[in-house]
Amino acid sequence: MVGEMKLVYDVGGLLVSGFAVHVLLAFTVLLILRPLFARIGLSRFVWNMPLAEFGIFLILTGVFLAVL
């Protein structure tokens, strides 16, 4: 089935929740995007940058949950 979340991943004998894997992936993408945000000067247009980054993190997590 397309878009079905895998419940548990086996990483070297350690069982990791599928949601945790998607959150880690979103966090990694956000760490890659942060220098880009600084370069384009996103903070000039955003009132609270940590809140905006948290919102982007939630959006990325939702996208990865829907797509992967």
Characterise this structure:
This protein has 68 residues and is mainly α. The chain has one domain. The chain contains 2 helices and 2 strands; from the N terminus they run ββαα. Strands 1-2 form a two-stranded antiparallel sheet. Strand 1 and strand 2 form a beta hairpin. Helix 1 crosses helix 2. It is elongated, with a radius of gyration of 15 Å.
User: Number of helical runs?
Assistant: 2
Give the helices and strands as they follow along the chain: EEHH
Count of DSSP strands: 2
- How many angstroms separate the termini? 11 Å
**Overall pLDDT score:** 88
Assembly state (oligomeric):
single chain
Q: Give a short account of the largest sheet.
A: 2 strands, antiparallel
Count structural domains.
1
Q: Which blocks of ≥5 consecutive residues have pLDDT under 50?
A: none
What is the overall shape? Answer: elongated
In percent, how helical is the residue content?
A: 55-70%
Q: Major sheet: order of its strands?
A: 1-2
State the secondary-structure class. mainly alpha
